[in-house]
Design brief:
Layout (H helix, E strand, L loop, with lengths): L1 H16 L1 H21 L8 E7 L4 H11 L4 E7 L5 H8 L3 E5 L3 H6 L7 E4 L4 H29 L4 H8 L16 H22 L4 H6 L1 H6 L5 H29 L9 H24 L3 H12 L2 H4 L11 H7 L3 H13 L9 H34 L1
Parallel strand pairs: 1-2, 1-3
Antiparallel strand pairs: 3-4
Helix pairs in contact: 1-11, 2-8, 2-11, 6-7, 8-11, 8-12, 8-13, 8-16, 11-12, 12-13, 12-16, 12-17, 16-17
């Protein structure tokens, strides 16, 4: 046991002597967590710039513009009476939409000629375009209903009759699970999970590859220890560090007031399994590729698209089957699927059993493969030393 602790002291020294490793492992989760937290802190998109081309310049068109100005998601950046070079201005000014009220609009309304309002959306940013479209429709549909009801009242109908004639039925939307549509609560958990996986990948990619490069592995081989002993030795410092890092990540949820149930047993199990699965894959690459740069580069290739492939933001049903198959080998895919069930739906361990099973499979496969490959390298080095 004393030998193990002596070697463990050396491992700690080697970890802290690597400034890149320390910066990645200890700095990245906090830095990226705070950065992304502040990016999405506003929680929803507001003040999207739009332009109103008011070719009618009537009391009704003025009322429509006032209604747009009252909508918090939209900002009437400019009101003009002719389009001008609006298509050339849109990329420069980043207008989300251009609303054109045609000439004779109010007169056509009064004469029941059903004029058309044209809305040109800037689809370069789909998120902004969708939000702008939704809010523009909301404003115009509300005004349209008001005009129709007022017209019926002028024809002699009572207010109740006018509303009943215009609205054949009502629709009541009840928003569940993130009812406020808070974008921070939606994005930050997924990003933090992907960041932690990537940080663990990159840190573990260095544990054996560095030893192969600087010759320290040969001194370990001379201790006559089996592969499982070296794996435990290399993993122990990170098993001590990771609870601290996850604690720091959990504080970000509190700091940014993210509404998610993360302090419970199912979530603890998920965090442990994600950590072990990420460590297993990272260490496996470190054993297979005896070069620190190449090992980290290859793991970056895996971890960079992991968040997108996980199905957290883009539905997995819309992803081709063969790509979905690839994503199943990435731990964060299963972690985020289970995270949503626990944090937002209030699920328990039985609800996330499929994800737990997949994470366990990844852990077993990666550690068994690492155990065998590392033992082969140990045997090869012993043979070289004896010769």
């Amino acid at each position: 046991m004393k030998k193990f602790f002596d070697l463990l002291k050396i491992e700690f020294k080697r970890i802290f002597s690597n400034s890149v490793l320390c910066a990645i492992f200890f700095g990245a989760p906090m830095l990226y967590g705070v950065l992304f937290g502040y990016v999405y802190q506003q929680a929803k998109v507001v003040n999207l710039p739009i332009v109103i081309v008011d070719q009618d310049n009537s009391p009704l068109s003025t009322s429509i513009i006032d209604a747009f100005e009252d909508n918090e998601a939209l900002l009437v950046k400019d009101r003009r009476y002719t389009p001008g070079d609006i298509l050339e201005e849109m990329p420069v000014e980043q207008y989300a939409a251009v609303v054109t009220l045609p000439s004779g609009f109010e007169g056509d309304i009064l004469q029941k000629r059903y004029p058309e309002i044209r809305v040109d959306l800037n689809m370069a940013n789909i998120l902004n375009a969708n939000i702008a479209s939704k809010n523009i429709q909301q404003v115009l549909m509300t005004l349209n209903a008001g005009i129709e009801i007022e017209s019926l009242q002028k024809q002699g109908a009572s207010p109740d009759q006018a509303r009943a004639s215009y609205e054949s039925f009502k629709v009541n939307f009840n928003k569940l699970y993130n009812s406020t549509g808070n974008y921070l609560s939606f994005m930050l958990p997924g990003l933090l999970g992907a960041i932690m996986q990537q940080v663990i990948f990159l840190a573990m990619a260095l544990v054996f590859s560095r030893d192969f490069e600087d010759g320290y592995f040969k001194s370990l081989v001379q201790k006559n220890k089996p592969s499982w002993y070296l794996i435990v030795l290399k993993a122990t410092p990170f098993l001590l560090f990771l609870p601290v890092m996850w604690f720091v990540v959990s504080r970000l949820f509190i700091f940014f007031n993210v509404e998610a149930a993360i302090f419970n047993i199912p979530m603890l199990i998920l965090i442990i399994l994600l950590s072990l699965a990420s460590m297993g894959i990272g260490m496996l690459f470190s054993v297979i590729i005896p070069n620190q740069l190449k090992a980290t580069e290859l793991l970056m290739v895996i971890s960079t698209p992991a968040f997108i492939l996980s199905g957290f933001t883009w539905p997995s049903l819309a992803i081709p089957e063969f790509i979905n198959g690839i994503s199943q080998s990435i731990p964060v895919t299963h972690f985020l699927a289970a995270f949503r069930k626990v944090a937002y739906y209030g699920g328990d361990i039985s609800d996330i059993f499929p994800e737990i099973k997949m994470l366990l499979i990844i852990i077993i496969i990666s550690f068994v493969a690492m155990l065998l490959l590392l033992q082969l390298k140990i045997n090869k080095n012993k043979k070289q030393i004896s010769e």
